Amino acid sequence: MCGIFGAFNFQRVPVDIEVARAMSGSIRHRGPDAHGFFRDELALLGNRRLAILDLSEAGNQPIVSDDGRIIVVQNGEIYNFLELRDELKREGARFSSNSDTEVILRAFEYWGPEFVLRLNGMFAIAIYDTQRERLFLYRDRLGVKPLYVSGMPSEGRVWFGSEIKAILANGQSYAPDFDALAQYFALNYIPQPSTAFEGICHVPPGHMVELSISGGFQLQRYWDLRAINAVSDMTEGEARAELLRLLDDSTRIRMRSDAPFGAFLSGGLDSSSVVGFMSLYQQDPIQTFSIGFADPRFDETAYALLAAQRFGTIHQRRIMEPEATALWPKMIWHCDQPHGDVSFMPMLQVSELAASEVKMVLTGDGGDELFAGYEKYLRFFPGGQAEDLRFGWEDHFARESGLLVGDQAGNLLAGSLREAFFGSDPYRALTDEIRGGTDQDPVNRVLRAETLTLLPGNNLVKPDRMAMANSLEVRSPFLDYRMAEFAFQVPGALKLRDGKTKWIYKRAVEPLLGEKLTYRRKQMFTVPVGEWFRQALTSYCREIMLDGRLEERGIVEIGAVERMLAEHVAGTGNHTRQLRALISLELWYRLFIDRDEAALLDGRGNGNDPIALGSRSGFHPANC
């Protein structure tokens, strides 16, 4: 897993060593097991290690080539590293560790920068070629692992990191990006490449960056999901067979670990399927974990227990109480950006529960976007039909599934935020992706757009940040790139059919899961925070939104906020989504813009403050 950070210096001025230490300390939670960095006049490459493969010191990073020319750090796991290792050995490569990071190093040496096309994994990778004076940055195909960059050649230096806070540790000041915040109020998350900070960008999934004195900053796509076309004559039998084959193999290779592991088990279709396939490859009972709620409308732990009994797991569950006052600042601190999705909080708690027993878990993330698991898809395509869509349906879908509805944006937003919202199209990240795939049927165009925007912009942020806050690695078999490519060969008509979501997927896994787990009513993994706003958290809402600080920012009409809250508490309106988005925004401002000491204490705690590097293991002699 781990976290990476660093810089490329176009003016050949080395990064100050105290800055390097601060960057490392800022993401200590991502890798408490080991740390190190390489530094010369051109580049800084650093790593925080969470040891999952090769637990010895030989797996520490940076990893340096035998001749000292190539330096590598990575965040993530390469699941096919054993197969690549064997292939490289046949070509003459020699290995001194059992880590997947050394496989990356040898692959770059033998196959060059295009080696990334051979990787099956989740990763953010930095590779520095000292001889060619080039730094290469790679982000995995589906954006499972984050990778942020800041700066341009004209500014003298480009920074990168697994989290925005690693870049913020460079000591520079970054203002709010109102265009990004406008997109947040449109979609409930900030889509890539935007971030909430001016001058900091999120490298898009499936892209690489090349940095050099001569070439500057070059961004290029190495993998494009939009190149995949549906196979119109695919039969149900063909689809079922290939889906099961891929889910089986992608689960198998994600169980490669030298550290203890388990699984998140919500009782939903995806996590239950993953645990079912895991049980085929392990004799000992799998450790599984779930989070629940006292409110039965939101609780699905009964189904988790049903799945646990079916597959003989050792299951632990925790019931979440209305303690958002403690969890919300921590959630935003680890996300670095405002997120309106409060299911981050139960993810934070189930990660804490799992981390007490294991260092890695498998999850079901990604299945809903690939195979049409959300009820909103059926609402928009009734019965799965997509023949009668009116002109501009792409915009209609984005707005219907967005955050602010009707005239809420006009009534709520003010100042620079209002100008940004109405001065551009804040839904464009989603609608452009839908329109960009006219070779696909409408159902698959929507699913592909959400796979490329919602998934890396929000749904994959949740397991990465909340698990890494607890130094826990998460792996999802559905996010195998082979599964994604196959999913968009499956016609949309096989995904939504007969009034059912995930039609073909359910048909495929029913023999594994049984009818009750397969066809249970889907519950969204979320928090009953709307009810809590009317009860235990009413005063918290007023404290965060109505103490004067949000009003002073000049970006919302505080009267509209007061009316929303009053209507919600009285039960005359349901403004849950809008209120939680406003709370998240205000907490983000206090943490990252105001640097409010009380908010920082709530968010960071004492364990995530920057620390000085101790041991210099993994250092190359070229370091200072």
What does this entry show, briefly?
The chain has 624 residues and is α+β, with helices and mostly antiparallel strands.
What is the topology?
Blueprint: E1 3-9, H1 17-26, E2 34-39, E3 43-49, E4 63-64, E5 70-78, H2 81-90, H3 100-111, E6 121-129, E7 134-139, E8 148-150, E9 157-161, H4 164-168, H5 178-187, E10 200-202, E11 207-212, E12 216-221, H6 236-253, E13 261-264, H7 269-278, E14 287-293, H8 301-311, E15 314-320, H9 324-335, H10 344-355, E16 360-362, H11 367-371, H12 375-380, H13 393-400, H14 408-412, H15 415-423, H16 428-435, H17 442-452, H18 454-459, H19 461-468, E17 473-475, H20 481-487, H21 503-513, H22 515-518, H23 529-534, H24 538-545, H25 549-552, H26 558-570, H27 576-593, H28 597-604
Parallel strand pairs: 13-14, 13-16, 14-15, 16-17
Antiparallel strand pairs: 1-3, 1-9, 2-3, 4-5, 5-6, 6-7, 7-11, 8-9, 8-10, 11-12
Helix pairs in contact: 2-3, 5-15, 6-20, 6-21, 7-21, 9-27, 9-28, 10-19, 13-16, 16-17, 24-26, 27-28
